[in-house]
Amino acid sequence: MSEETSLKARFAGFAGGHFILSLLGYGLYFWVAFSGFVIEFPILPVLTGGLMLLYVLAGFLVARLFHWTRPSRKRAVQAVALPAGIALFFAGASLLMLFGGSAAAAWAERLGKSTDAAATVAGTGMVALLSTVFWASPSFFLMLLATMAFLENGVLWLLCVLPAAVLPPLLFFLGSILGKRELTSAENVIE
Prior knowledge:
Layout: H1 7-34, H2 43-65, H3 73-110, H4 116-135, H5 137-149, H6 154-159, H7 161-176
Helix pairs in contact: 1-2, 1-3, 2-5, 2-7, 3-4, 3-7, 4-5, 5-7
């Protein structure tokens, strides 16, 4: 029996598929936005949903291309948790810089102090969040949809960060195990 596919290989496969889908998403969104076509239905949810579903296909193709084995439960959890954790950390750090810097700037202004450093921190947080349009466009546009839907309710918007971080690696992982059976019974063990 072949050795279990390493977490490093699974993460690298996800990262490659993720960046390719991000480029595809970025190109599609901006082509639609600037093409001049009049579209009679809400295209943003359709494209976002379609790109999210493409993670399943990407996972399937990467797993077949690199001959990944079916993971153990522990490796399966790790394969989803690692990229999701990185995304959540990035989102949390960016939001903390954005809102923390803005609050610090307001506080410094009330005290009559310079707001330059705090404004720079807030601006860096905003740029970090907006940069995800280039390297995580499916998640970016999912959060854009959440912003449009839950603009008045910040708690609901923050709750949407979790699916935006977890869905891509989860769907990719599910695609990577499509059609793979565990080799435990006598009829499917190859000697």
